[in-house]
Sequence to fold (864 residues):
Amino acid sequence: MPLQRSVAPILCVQPSRALVDEKFTVLVKNLPPGGPFTVRSLHLSEDNDYWEAYGHYVSNHQGELSVWDDLSFGGTYTGREPMGLLSSMRPIPGSRPGLRLRKKDVTTPMLVTISVYCGHEDYRDQTPLASVLTERWHMAPGVQRFPLQENTVRGTLFIPPGPGPFPGILDMWGGGGGLLEYRAALLASHGYVCLALEYFKPGEMTSANQEFSYFETAFNVIKDHPQVKTDRVGILGLSLGSAVTLNLATESKRYACIPPPLSAFGSTPIGCYWFLLVVFDPRFPVKHDENNCEIWREMILPLLKDSSRKVKVEKLRCPMLCISGCDDQNWPAVESVDDVMETLRAVGKDHLLTRADYPDAGHLIEPPFTPHFRATNFIRGSTMEKVVMLWGGQTKPHSEAQEDSWRKILSFLQHNLYGNDHARSRL
Amino acid sequence: MDRTQCCVQLSVQPSRALVDERFVILVEKAPPGFQLSVRALHQCEDGHSWEAFGHYISDATGTVNVSQDLSLGGTYSGVEAMGLLCSLRPVPGSKPGLRMRKKDVQAPMMVTISVYQGHQVEGFVDQVPLASVVVERWYVAPGVRRIPITDHGLTGTLFLPPGPGPFPAVLDLWGGGGQLVEYRAALLASHGFAALALDYLTAKVIRETGKMVEDQYFETAYKELQKHPQIVSSRIAMIGLSFGTTMTLKMAIYSKVVKLRCAVCISGSHVQPIEKSVEEILSSFNDRADKTRINEENQVIWRDLLLPIPTDPSLKADVGSLQCPLLLVVGEDDQNWPTKESAEDIQEMMERAGNSHLLTVLSYPDTGHLIEPPYSSHTRTSNFKPVGTNQKVTVLWGGQMAAHARAQEDAWKKMLAFLRENLYGGRKASAATQSNL
Fold:
């Protein structure tokens, strides 16, 4: 039944401008009491795809509804989900398949329209009752972005505002390749000089012949930066980036001979985000699921038994945090961490490892309040072959994993990179 | 303290906000019991630098929370969460008589907040802070649309909230300095009101014809709002400051066209010759210029021009015949207009007429004339050139910084509540709509 109204209801999203890892409240007032309403988010990506999420609500006796407090009775999320309008986003019906939402230009915000509609039926033909715009930023004000000019290392450096010096982080993504800046920008917004590193272009993974020294050079770009505290640099890696991270943390000869009390690495590197034992070899046959999505985890699992393929984690000298999704269909993350734990325990170094395993979370554990991708398009091989990769995970537990793990990561970085020596030496 | 060892962390939350939103400034990981200065620096659009600072001592955990801790000195003292913005003043060596007013409302005001070692009073620019962050203060919420209005001889800017609407609207008038001042209208739109900032003293049509506008100018602006497809024609209010109050009362009481849902009058008076043109009203004020006072600092005090409040009814707007709610905002230390005396007389007139139930008076001690949206620098005196003259004088507006800042915060909150209540309808509207279901 159409609503006759003289003024629009009042829709308020607070804060209207926020970092992507901050929560918001969505409040609607001046509605008829006890009525059915749909709250919906809509975003047009840089690739020109529409993404949306929505929840079905009932206004209270005062004609108000609050996404923070109230239950959603249906939609792309149910139950009490304060950030459901972002974390359950998916492409609108009719979109191209296998899409993934990733911000390329981090100097501009992600714009999301939040609207409220009458009823719980399909809203697509309706004009919303009210609509506001909210900005989600990867860069805090004052964070500076510097694409690296040096030819040897490809990447982008983000520097927090202020004189510094700051702790530093080397940030590496995985097998998809390319240069992704958004996590580094976000880390700089939390007070770290962060280098987002490109170490091969999309599709180049198998042919890339990146020398270990490339990563050491990248690490030094941060370590030697005038605004970075030399002894407070860490590394963050996801997926293949974890392999690199672990290599750097254990194998780097350059840092093997720094005497105490500076501790290992000439720095106190921290951070390992997800973790891979083996340098990937895609010539192994790949499994497929019923939708023809590629599943890589089974092919990597046997390699855990081959010690010649594994990084020598017993040489680890710094604290490490490993985040894993139990439903990771791309890498056997949990089994890998089990193996690392065993190896470390054998040499009395298990106190260096902190692990968090998330049930029903997949491979792509990203900063919070971003959509979950169970399977997306992926370019692999030098033939630039496009496949659909199964990453795994169920939306709700995966979103919870993203939120919880990000908090743990920030806390781990804060403790190890910003903490005083006394606190850190107790590790 | 060795800087390489220092890990002082500074955070301001939120880092991006509307100008009327509070923030929390936290300094952490300083040594306990440490002397610190927290400073704000802002470079405004005309290139002048403004600063404010407070002196703090960290607690046993090495923390300073500006919202909770005492500032022991600086440009503000006591517990002042927003002191770093309210007490902004031009840096030493600046030109005298400056006033901070945002012209481009679509770009944020950028403020650098820094923390320094020790209790500094000067020379910040030569020192390296321990930490520093940048905050953005916005006059527009995301999605607010800015539309220049030039039809029908009007000079104004319409700000529309995001969304389909329809919205209630506010006609926004500033005072005797003229110009097209957009920032309050932009903020109102960020709170859900379509708002038209109107230049009525230096508008294009005035510059071209050499003549002041008539009542019709305001009525045209009102009709433009009424006929806008995203505005509810029966829910329009006016808000006026200073001479804008004079115009607001004139329209609210005497116009056959303008039917206001409510009116807000800030720092103004009802004293005006009735049934006269805008030009004649201005003249009548100028005729009393001999009552201007100049104090020892050579600052101009104009509050006496309209005193004493006349008893002759033809010399003041007939507030007894007002039919809509009226909110008066009064600074008791207003040195520019006799706002307090006028408010008292308005109250008396409305009580005699039996419509005082429409009146709400907000009266603030030690508060001056320029009652603006909150968390902006307090201007006690500034350079001013009244419209129609060529003389630039230094005007005394009045007010003490801390009290004035508190008044701005309280008045703005109450103004928004008043507008919401009258324009969005409150409970009555909900009940009425329920009966439509």
In short: Helices of chain A lie at 84-87, 182-189, 212-223, 240-251, 297-300, 333-346, 395-418, 421-425. Residues 1-5, 253-280, 422-427 of chain A have pLDDT under 50 and may be disordered.
